[in-house]
Design brief:
With 478 residues, the protein is α/β, with parallel strands linked by helices. It has three domains: 2-146 and 271-335, FAD/NAD(P)-binding domain (3-Layer(bba) Sandwich), CATH 3.50.50; 150-268, FAD/NAD(P)-binding domain (3-Layer(bba) Sandwich), CATH 3.50.50; 348-468, Enolase-like, domain 1. It is 31% helix and 25% strand. It has helices at 15-28, 43-47, 49-67, 82-105, 162-165, 182-193, 213-224, 319-335, 383-387, 416-428, 433-437, 447-463, and strands at 2-11, 32-36, 112-114, 117-121, 124-127, 131-140, 144-146, 159-160, 174-178, 197-201, 228-230, 234-241, 244-250, 256-261, 263-266, 270-272, 306-308, 348-351, 356-361, 372-378, 394-400, 406-413. Strands 1, 2, 3, 4, 5, 6 and 17 form a seven-stranded mixed β-sheet that branches. Helix 3 runs antiparallel to helix 4 (82-105) and helix 3 crosses helix 6. The longest helix has 24 residues, at 82-105. The protein is globular. It starts with a strand and ends in a 15-residue tail after the last helix. The relative contact order is 0.12. Its cofactor is FAD.
Length: 478
């Protein structure tokens, strides 16, 4: 068996791993090996962010034609060519993956090691059956995989995950989506708008990452106008039914239904790829789920020479977070044992549904009751939103009593991706509601809705007044 001695070993060549490799090598000039046991190309490019947005873009085009008559525009009957839709998804997906692979190709071949890694102890890794790597420090960046509820296995080959969807050559007749998180909502709504019969099953009453009950209620109501959304539903039986899968379920009202679908999409979240690493041999502390305990500011596991980053740590499974964590982990692995806190940014998450969902900073669930004021605005009568016939949703932002500092926000509404960025920047900068109100606002724009919510919060901070039911900023003429 070959032997290799390095300063830093990085396990996983996804977004976090590639960033960790560059940080350890470029910042500190260390001898680094990048170990990968699967295909090159990140989760985001191959089966996540980018192919899902390609599918959503096609769905938005179809939805635009369907809703055009509401503007007095009649484009005629739409014809959705499923094969053409999926051909573009796969083609553009492959382009994005190609960019990532091209970046890997520019890495010194001597720094690349193919094969699945497992720990022999805290400082030694075995890669495949061919190489032992002795490393001064290690970065675990092995990513995640879709979680499949055991009871879904009976669907056999009709059971798919999001990775499989983006390999389809045509759109199916029907899909049952199990899970109402980000993946389930985005893919489910997109398929529905592309003519696929879709039912979404949620074991609980939540959708995506929303914790604010008022925003959740508005978002759920908006989705139910378009989608067959079945929250608080129990799956009683799943089985193959010829070329389909039959699902028997019990709804919140106790009624039972039995239906057949072309496919069952498992979208109940993702789990870190850690089982094959033999982490128990390292001596680091693990939680009850087998996940390493780590410092989110340094990405260090305990006081060991092992660092973790990206989806593997199950903290914030998002691309921008994976890159930040990879940079911190790689930097600290390269300078070990001189471990230092790195930059962690204000939490920001967006769901590309319609209406879009977003959360920024501290969510409703994490705030201490009585410590904050809520500023709210409904998009029902917000000027620009009504102009575009996208007037659905609610924004609620949270401001700290005493300081007036913006703590966070949750929202469902049009262009929430852009509002969320403004709010995240304000949170990250430590801005107060008053400072935000001093910023320029154009007219007519959706951001005027944000100004209304800020005025609402300011009134409550200064006067303790109840929420404003209507504000002049919301009317088209102001």
């Amino acid at each position: 068996m070959d032997q290799m001695t390095v300063d830093v070993a990085v396990i996983g060549a996804g977004s976090a791993g590639l960033t960790a490799y560059k940080a350890a090598r470029s910042h500190h000039g260390k001898r680094v090996v990048l170990i990968e046991g699967g295909p090159y190309g990140t989760t985001c490019a191959r089966v996540g962010c980018m192919p899902s947005k390609l599918l959503i873009a096609a769905a938005e085009a179809a939805h635009g034609m369907a809703t055009a008559p509401e503007f007095g525009v009649h484009p005629g009957a739409a014809r959705i060519d499923g094969r053409a839709v999926m051909a573009r998804v796969r083609s553009e997906r492959d382009r994005f993956v190609g960019y990532v692979v091209a970046g890997v190709d520019r890495i010194d071949p001597g720094d690349l090691l193919r094969g699945c890694a497992r720990f022999l102890d805290a400082a030694r890794l075995q890669v495949g059956e061919h190489t032992i790597v002795q490393a001064r420090s290690v970065v675990v960046a092995t990513g995640s995989s879709p979680y499949i509820l055991p009871q879904l296995a009976a669907a056999g080959e009709r059971l798919v995950v999001n990775d499989d969807v983006f390999a389809w050559e045509d759109l199916p007749e029907s899909v049952a989506v199990v899970g109402t998180g980000i993946i389930g909502l985005e893919i489910g709504q997109a398929l529905q708008r592309l003519g696929v019969r879709v039912a979404l099953f949620g074991r609980g009453g939540n959708v995506a990452q929303l914790s604010d009950p008022a925003v959740l209620d508005v978002a759920t109501g908006a989705f139910r106008q378009e989608l067959d959304l079945r929250l608080n539903t129990e799956l009683l039986d799943v089985r193959r039914d010829g070329a389909q899968v039959r699902i028997r379920s019990r709804g919140a009202d106790g009624s039972e239904r039995s239906e057949s679908f072309s496919f069952l999409l498992a979208a109940a979240g993702r789990v870190p790829n850690l089982q094959a690493l033999c982490l128990e041999r390292t001596g680091i502390a693990l939680d009850t789920r087998g996940l390493p305990l780590f410092d989110p500011h340094t990405m260090q596991c305990g006081d060991s020479s092992i660092f973790i980053a990206g989806d593997a740590d199950h903290e914030r499974p998002l691309l921008h977070e994976a890159i930040d964590q990879g940079r911190i982990a790689g930097d600290n692995a390269g300078r070990y044992p001189d471990v230092r806190p790195g930059l962690r940014r204000t939490p920001l998450a967006v769901v590309f549904t319609d209406p879009q969902l977003a959360s920024v900073g501290q969510g409703w669930r994490s705030l201490r009751p009585g410590s904050f004021a809520v500023g709210a605005v409904s998009f029902d009568n917000q000027g620009r939103s009504r102009v575009m016939l996208q007037n659905r949703g609610l924004l609620r932002l949270y401001a700290e009593h005493g300081s007036g500092r913006l703590l966070g926000a949750e929202m469902a509404g049009p262009r929430a991706e852009h509002l969320a960025h403004l709010l995240a920047w304000a949170c990250h900068s430590g801005m107060t509601v008053e400072q935000m109100l001093q910023m320029p606002f154009y007219h007519p724009v959706i951001e005027e809705g944000l100004r209304s919510a800020l005025h609402d919060a300011q009134d409550k901070l200064l006067k303790g007044e109840p929420e404003i039911e209507h504000c002049t900023d919301c009317t088209p003429g102001m």
